[in-house]
Design goal:
The protein is an alpha+beta fold. The protein has 15 helices and 24 strands. It folds into 2 domains: 293 residues, Periplasmic binding protein-like II (D-Maltodextrin-Binding Protein, domain 2, 3-Layer(aba) Sandwich); 223 residues, Dipeptide-binding Protein, Domain 3 (Dipeptide-binding Protein, domain 3, Roll). Helices cover 27% and strands 22% of the residues. It has a 7-stranded mixed β-sheet with strand order 8-9-10-1-11-22-12, covered by helices on one side. A 4-stranded antiparallel β-sheet has the order 4-5-7-6, covered by helices on one side. The chain has a 4-stranded antiparallel β-sheet with strand order 14-21-13-20, with helices on both faces. Helix 8 packs antiparallel against helix 10, helix 9 packs antiparallel against helix 11 and helix 14 runs antiparallel to helix 15. The radius of gyration is 23 Å and the shape is globular.
């Protein structure tokens, strides 16, 4: 691996575009940036945790980066820039990462940020039961973290692993005050008790209602422009848009096609969009039991579904069709899959006939050995975004009409959904992840030991490709590995029904400036660069 050293001086002009710091793009309508003021922002999803180490919802990133920071951030081409770090070196064999830390930085509770704090966070992440998905994927090949001096730390790997840099720039890699981690009463839930180094301090959280941040007066470098920002939890899109148009909030995120005309038709408002990176929103077929243990049924489900028509009906032409488990915004996306499968009801019906599902009941559903062709999709309500419940209903109607498949959809609380998954009482699992590196998402979703491998797939060839992709440092060679992986899981084994590439929308009063999307991730950025004109 080529030896590298990144210096903070080389990226000084780019820091405001970094994901950890905010990533906003100034709006001309808002005029020149100003300091001061209080902003209210309506958001779609209430986080299930405010501890960045436990991060699991893409919609929580814009909150996380307000009060926490990672060692690295991203540029707009997917590269890595220093943030809490001054720079890093990689040994020629790719096994040792030496990271130089910023000096003079403190957490909001007064605890100094140094190498000991970094190591304390890693030690906690690797402890039993604390953050198993992080330990199993991003830190899978970490051998040790060692303190060289107060401003230098080394990460030693068991084998080369490019995902270590993704970790160092991710919410899970955010550095939290060790003192606050020890003192927190409910560590996994997080909240005001946990202290970060970010431009804001989380000082108030009212579950079900709102979360409030105030400017960090001791923030190193350029301070936030806003004095305070309140995020209100407004789950229904019509309520969010109504709050914006009535002036109750100045910014909202999550504006579906059904409500966008109310924004674009109002000269006082702006609307912008960002395409997420990571994995596409897809249905994953559970292959551990019938009927999706039969590849013919998986293929038939995909042939029975006209994805373009369903997406058009639900999203009115605003959704980007997905053809692979990886989203098209990722450099690892295999474009050759486009148009190669699906939307063939005739073939779907012939395939199901051949698979023995050749009888129909009184409701028109296919039957085999007296049992209806039923598949269950259990959606966890905290993760339902972008009208995915409405999309599921549209898919349900489509596969019934075209092939007699009974897709049963239920939207339940997180505990009920978790139990259904643990008890293997489902046939379809829906998921998307906004990971900046799609490889991190695929390790969770497709690996035999993946924490959210709801396919139940145990395939040594897939595991081998995942391991190879995680170790490969050459971008072109790495893309080739993931191309082979996508061909295997999408084209050859029909394990997945890709639906659309997730996107985010930000609507705002034109007095709000500095809004934007995280480079690479494509999700709404934090409030760091945001201002509100008088």
């Amino acid at each position: 691996m080529r030896r590298r050293f990144l210096l903070i001086a080389t990226v000084a002009t780019a820091l405001l575009a970094g994901c950890s710091g905010g990533g906003g793009t100034d709006s001309a309508a808002a005029g020149s940036p100003v300091s001061g003021g209080a902003l209210t922002w309506g958001i779609e999803t209430e986080p299930i945790t405010l501890n960045p180490h436990q991060y699991a919802q893409a919609k929580a990133r814009l909150l996380t980066w307000n009060n926490f920071e990672a060692l690295l951030t991203h540029d707009d081409k997917g590269g890595y820039l220093p943030w809490l770090a001054n720079g890093y070196q990689v040994s020629p064999d790719g096994l040792v990462y030496t990271v130089k830390l910023r000096s003079g930085v403190s957490f909001s509770d007064g605890t100094p940020f140094d190498a000991a704090a970094v190591k304390a966070n890693i030690d906690l992440l690797l402890s039993d039961g604390y953050a198993p998905t992080v330990a199993a994927v991003q830190l899978k090949n970490l051998k040790s973290v060692d303190i060289v001096d107060p401003s230098t730390v080394t990460y030693t790997l068991k084998q080369p692993d490019v995902l270590i840099l993704d970790f160092l720039s991710s919410p899970q890699g955010a550095v939290v005050s060790p003192a606050s981690l020890k003192a927190a009463k409910n560590l996994k839930a997080g909240g005001p008790e946990l202290a970060g180094t970010g431009p804001f301090i989380l000082d108030r959280y009212t579950p079900g209602q709102e979360i409030h941040y105030k400017k960090n007066p001791a923030y190193r470098g350029k301070p936030a422009r806003l004095d305070e920002v309140t995020y209100r939890f407004l789950k229904e899109s019509s309520v969010r848009v109504g709050a914006l148009t009535s002036g109750q909030v100045q910014v909202i995120e999550g504006v579906p096609a059904t409500d966008q005309a109310r924004i674009t038709g109002n000269p006082a408002l702006t609307l912008s969009r960002g395409l997420n990176s990571g994995s596409a929103y897809s249905y994953y077929f559970n292959v551990t039991h019938a009927p999706f243990d039969d590849i013919r049924v998986r293929q038939a489900f995909r042939d029975a579904l006209d994805v373009d028509t369903v997406l058009k009906g639900v999203y009115r032409g605003t959704a980007t069709r997905a053809w692979s488990v990886i989203g098209p915004a990722s450099p690892l996306y295999d474009k050759s899959l486009e148009g190669t499968y699906g939307t063939n009801p005739g073939r779907a019906n012939a395939t199901l006939d051949a698979a023995g599902w050749n009888a129909r009941d009184a409701q028109g559903f296919r039957v085999k050995d007296g049992k209806r062709l039923t598949v269950r999709l259990v959606q966890s309500s905290p993760f339902v975004r972008d009208r995915r419940d409405i999309l599921a209903q549209a898919v349900q109607a489509a596969v019934k009409q075209s092939a007699g498949i009974d897709l049963q959809v239920s939207v339940v609380d997180q505990g009920t959904a978790t139990k259904a998954l643990e008890d293997n009482q489902y046939e379809v699992f829906d998921n998307s992840r906004a990971d900046t590196d799609a490889g991190a998402a695929l390790n969770l979703l497709l690996s035999s030991s993946g924490a959210i491998n709801r396919l139940g797939i145990q395939d040594k060839a897939i595991d081998g490709l995942l391991d190879k992709g995680q170790a490969e440092g050459d971008p072109a060679a790495r893309a080739g590995v993931y191309r082979d992986l996508q061909q295997k899981v999408v084209a050859e084994q029909a394990l997945i029904q890709p639906l659309y590439a997730p996107a985010d929308q930000i609507a705002a009063n034109k007095k709000a400036g500095g809004l934007g999307f995280e480079p690479t991730a494509g999700v709404p950025a934090s409030a760091y660069t945001v201002w509100l004109s008088k």
